[in-house]
Amino acid sequence: MDDQENSDEEREAGGSRGSSSSQRGTRGAEMRPLGPQKLLEVTEEMYRSFNPAQVTLDTHADQALAQLQIRNPLDDVFIRQVLYGVVRYRQFLGSLMDSFYYYNR
């Protein structure tokens, strides 16, 4: 009786291990971080498509990230923080770029 119980337990343990590793592989593909180039492209596209007269920044970020299927939490936070910073400091960044282009003609 003990041998049969041990065999059942081993089978169950092996089955659960196999399914968790296959789930981990699937989740790993979804959680793969974007590269630096792609992060900047996504952030730029989100900034360009933002219209404050139509939607709030938070709602726009939520909708855009869902549409782009950004699932990595670190990518999500990075994109949101850059987007929030660019919107908040838009005027300062404009002045900085004007100054940069003026002195580097």
Name the descriptors:
single chain, 105 residues, mainly alpha, 5 helices
> What shape does the CA trace take?
globular
**Percentage of residues in helical conformation:** over 70%
> The biggest beta sheet, please?
none
Rg calc: 24 Å
Q: Write down the overall mean pLDDT.
A: 78
N-C termini distance:
87 Å
Strand element count? 0
Number of helices: 5
What structural category do the secondary elements indicate? mainly alpha
Q: Strand-residue fraction?
A: under 5%
Order of helices and strands: HHHHH
Task: Outline the low-pLDDT stretches.
Answer: 11-26
What does this structure look like?
Helices cover 81% and strands 0% of the residues. The protein has 105 residues and is mainly alpha-helical. α2 (36-49) packs across α4 (73-88). It starts with a helix and ends with a helix. The model is unreliable at 11-26 (pLDDT under 50).
Write the topology of this structure.
Layout: H1 2-30, H2 36-49, H3 57-68, H4 73-88, H5 90-103
Quick structural overview:
The chain is mainly α and 105 residues long.
